[in-house]
Amino acid sequence: MTPLPAQKQGATLPWQEGQALFEWLLKMPASQPLPDGCRYDAQQLLFGEPASGSSGSGDHDAPPPAGANTLEELAVHIHELLLAAARSAGDESCQARVQLYQFVRDASLLPLADPLTEAICAGRDEHDAHGLAELARWLVRRAAHRGPLKLGLVLLGLVGEPADVPDLVHLARHDEFTLFAAVAAGRILDEPCETWWRMAQQNYGAGRVVLVERLSTYCSESPEVRHWLLTEGFRVEGFEAELALHCAKGARLSAVLATPALPPDVLGAACELMRHLLRSTSPQHPPLIGEYPEARFAVAHLLRHLSQQPAAALAGAEVALAVRAWLESHHALTCTSASLRRTLTQQCEGLLSRSHWLRLVSTAVRTGTEAERQRAFDVAAGLGLDLWDETLERFNFVPLTAPWVRRLAREQPQERLLELLRLGSKQLPHDEIATGPAEQLRLDEPGFEPHAALDALLGVISNDAITLFEPRLIATAIRSPVVRNRYAALTILQYVPRALWGTNVEQALRHVRFCEPDVELAEQWQRLAEAS
Fold it and tell me: Which end of the chain has a smaller Cβ tally under 10 Å, C or N?
């Protein structure tokens, strides 16, 4: 056993360097980054290299013992530290606990979890079971750093009891601890499915992937879990495709779709899940539907259901467009035959040829929510429908936003761009924007939505500064507190003859020459005025 070094007199105990993460998570949303920013990766842990940007007192640095340069050797060393710390039940400031805590404080515990578990299980005869359980709970509740808390979760999975499960559920909310908490629950409970489901329902990040994979593999006999996987399990922004694959398997999607009729909510969820399976995030990453063994049957059954709907919602068109694109790609070759591709393509074309799509997308653009408008534009683009008139009608009474200006301007002729600029000039709150030059750099902050819309309109003008010149927009941009707005206005004016500027632009230019806070811009304004 490696001897323990003496604790320096008056040194702060390492778990007192910050708030206990368990308590911190009680008050903060699971999406909030952890307050402890230092973390070693696996290589740094193995070879004792200093972690860049690590924080904390140097008094507690504990390099790996000589010769401990494999995961197994490190696990044995941590096991030795655990044995010493577990014998100190009730004395949290003892040197053994300090040594253990400081050794794993900034460590990456994930690669060590399995060899450490093996080392602990192999040495059960040496353990004080009560002391090890007390140590595990103490680490889970008191740790102010990731590494010790994860070590506590690994231990809890080996010596914990069902009474510890609520703590695991609480910690599983945060992605960094989800895998450790899920594994611990699986070891403690004979039937962990209900607990994993509770964990998954309150995790809205990458951690849900870990939980949904377990639910789809071990818990698919539960009708309630299968229904949740189908209707809710995949709904985490940024992880929909991967979650959809696990949910399709666990929910038995193909079997559900094989039934003669489906409730509207189930059919709608199946459409959304299928679209995520069919979506390719990049040319290098094919759609994950290729990894779903029942893909060809699920697609055929879903198209049948949609064909039976007399007036299917836009979700039906989205699915048909996604299936058609998939069938036309090389990705479908590995899981469909030529005859099946022809049949499915004909079903897609039959769905997409229905006459009611224009009415549905027009209604969504005029009266729908942001999400419904986005869906309408996507469908319209796939079907080749022109929504120009409907969109302009909508924006006659709804403020313009930057994303929709850019979408409207895409691949439009000049006469439409002029119409968009005039509408934008009419709709923008010019007085609210033109508060005077300042050094505001960001357009994505609350309150600067009009400035972002102006930025998008200036981008339209820059395509052909002379033909699309709109003086009022330029004058407002010159007086905007956002630096980017003023730079865009300057760039446009450099291409436009002064005779086209107009009185508003001239007045704004005279004003900005004397109050421009950006040094480079001030010089540019001066040169522009002198050149004129």
Answer: N
